[in-house]
Design brief:
alpha/beta; disordered N terminus; elongated; 4-stranded antiparallel beta sheet; 6-stranded mixed beta sheet
Length: 590
């Protein structure tokens, strides 16, 4: 069970009313439109009892007694009723749709904003498919609960009250008999509501799982094709879809069973009422018009009662989705308790007895790191995979926080700095290049608060040895890079990320295998550009190709979370220890 799923568990103890009340809170900014929709629904519902009410004078005065009953009254009244109902129905539908679509935008915006502010470790724990499913799919079920379900509940409840009121006015004794079906309906709906909510929750979880399966298959198509993984992926997809089908059928059974039970109860009540009404008619206790009006009103009750029974399934799906949405909205944002603001840092970094252990690991990834990096110093981090190099880099922008010790930037502990100010000091180029489905210009200028002119972008592209490639594109800087940069080669994507780092002009550079996707000739060119960019900046470089870090001011050698050696390239080779062995192994395999 994921963290978000665990977060949703306490919501099981909340009442449907509490969840719905919170849901309706999103309509507060649109209360005028919401109120207009409710008024229009009330007007439309109020016209329902008028039709059976016309039956009594029509039959008693127009047919039985044949009094001077105006011929125009009934047709005019009928037309007027349906005109008013049509206008009110359209108005309520439009106003409620306007409210619902605005609420959908607001909820999705809040969800996306919360996701962007979650701690980094939350992204490691939570499957991306589940997050996507909540923002894209589940939230639509929430708005359905606000709109269609609310429309049915309000409109049909008023219709039922109006018709019951007319029935009481006509014959309160018969009405008591008719109302006997309400306790039956209440019991049926409450029993099936709990089952519908449980099934809806499970269905939402598997919808998220299905999204994850599809997302992985789409992005991993090359691996699937090369390794012949069609059958395995198809089986995963089939299993998930089949589970969803099972839940859908069980939800259909639970939702559909309420309707025939409700209708059977209503039919029994109608049969009893008709029998009693016939007895009363024989004893002259009711008129023909009164009897027809009563039966008409009773029959008209069946449709809204059916709607109220049907809406339970949709309402439970909406409430289950609301639980999931609120669980996401209630996740804790990453801590930002810092109060210190800084402009441009000088770039001195100090580690004081820093250790870090990942929550799922029994061993520390970093152990007792004491390190003083001078402003403007170029420091290379080397060592085997899993030695702690990337963990150390992740500590600097506070993607993770030390389990022990502290890190200072220009003498200020990182948690004391505002996150936005802290992260403004870094530019990152990693082995896993992240580009967005936007233009070259937008990707290079990403995150710059001020306007970036084209000359600056071209200068950065030239420094990254990518300007010729971009100039050859049909749209130049306005060319789209495609989803995840798929219209560019691997090396071009990495050089675009380098240009983005250059444009940010941050005082601290974090380079995690920044040239790993480049060929030897291009790597050397980019290395020259990087060396130019590094001047005057504190730079931390992770590189497995040791030839790329020979000019670093200092090289730190990591082993099992500790710094076991440090010095210049020449000093470490002379020491003939771990670094020297790694260097010889690489050149032996070259």
């Amino acid at each position: 069970m994921s963290a978000a799923q665990k977060a949703a568990v306490p919501r099981d103890r909340q009442s449907s009313l509490a969840i719905y009340r919170r849901l309706l809170g999103f309509t507060r900014p649109y209360r005028i439109g919401f109120a207009a929709a409710l008024v229009a629904m009330i007007v439309a519902a109020a016209t329902e009892p008028l039709f059976p009410a016309l039956m009594k004078p029509l039959l008693d005065e127009g047919f039985v007694h044949k009094s001077q009953f105006p011929l125009w009254f009934v047709p005019v009244a009928l037309i007027a009723i349906f005109v008013v109902r049509g206008i009110a129905t359209f108005s309520s539908s439009y106003a409620l749709a306007w409210v619902a679509n605005n609420v959908l935008v607001d909820v999705r915006t809040q969800m996306f904003d919360r996701v962007m502010r979650l701690p980094a470790e939350q992204f490691e724990r939570e499957a991306s498919g589940l997050l996507i499913s909540r923002i894209v799919f589940e939230v639509t079920n929430v708005t359905a609960a606000v709109t269609r379900a609310l429309t049915t509940v309000v409109r049909d409840s008023i219709v039922v009250l109006g018709l019951v009121g007319w029935l009481v006015y006509l014959n309160w004794k018969l009405t008591l008999v008719a109302l006997l079906l309400i306790p039956v309906m209440t019991i049926v709906v409450s029993v099936y509501s709990r089952r519908m909510r449980r099934l809806s929750r499970q269905s939402l979880l598997y919808t998220g799982e299905l999204t994850r399966v599809v997302e992985e298959a789409v992005h991993g198509y090359k691996v699937i094709k090369i390794f012949g993984g069609y059958r395995a992926q198809a089986e995963r997809f089939s299993r998930t879809v089949d589970k969803l089908r099972g839940f859908a059928m069980r939800m259909t059974i639970a939702g559909s069973a309420t309707v025939p039970i409700t209708q059977l109860s209503a039919a029994i009540a109608v049969a009893i009422v008709v029998t009693i009404a016939l007895v009363q008619s024989m004893n002259d206790q009711t008129t023909v018009g009164g009897f027809v009006s009563f039966v008409t009103a009773m029959l008209m009750l069946l449709a809204p009662l059916k709607h109220l029974a049907d809406v339970n399934a949709e309402l439970q799906r909406g409430l289950a989705a609301a639980e999931s949405v609120f669980a996401l909205l209630d996740l804790q944002e990453e801590a930002d308790v810092g109060t210190v603001s800084i402009g441009r840092a000088r770039g001195r970094l100090v580690f004081e007895n820093v250790s870090y252990r990942y929550p799922t690991s029994a061993h520390e990834a970093l152990r007792e790191i004491d390190l003083d990096i001078r402003a403007g110093e170029v420091v290379a981090l080397v060592g085997a995979s899993g030695a702690g190099k990337s963990t150390l880099l992740n500590l600097l922008p506070r993607f993770i926080d030390p389990t022990r010790g502290r890190i200072l930037l220009d003498g200020v502990a990182l948690p004391e700095l505002r996150l936005a100010d802290l992260r403004r000091q870094y530019a990152l180029v990693s082995q896993e290049v992240v580009l967005f489905n936007d233009t070259v210009r937008a990707n290079v200028a990403l995150g710059r608060e001020d306007a970036v002119d084209d000359a600056t972008i071209w200068a950065a592209l030239e420094a990254a040895r990518l300007d010729a490639v971009v100039r050859a594109l049909p749209d130049g800087l306005d060319a789209s890079v495609g989803e995840r940069g798929t219209r560019l080669s691997g090396g071009q994507r990495q050089r675009l990320a380098l240009a983005r780092a250059i444009v940010k002009d941050a005082p601290i550079l974090l380079l995690d295998e920044a040239t790993s996707a480049l060929d030897s000739a291009t790597e050397r060119e980019v290395q020259i550009a990087l060396e130019h960019t590094m001047r005057g900046r504190t730079t931390l470089v992770i590189a497995h190709r040791l030839s790329t870090i020979e000019r670093a001011d200092r090289i730190l050698v990591f082993d099992h979370g500790r710094i076991v050696e440090q010095g210049t390239h020449a000093e470490l080779l002379e020491a003939d220890s771990l670094y020297a062995r790694l260097y010889r192994i690489q050149y032996a395999n070259a």
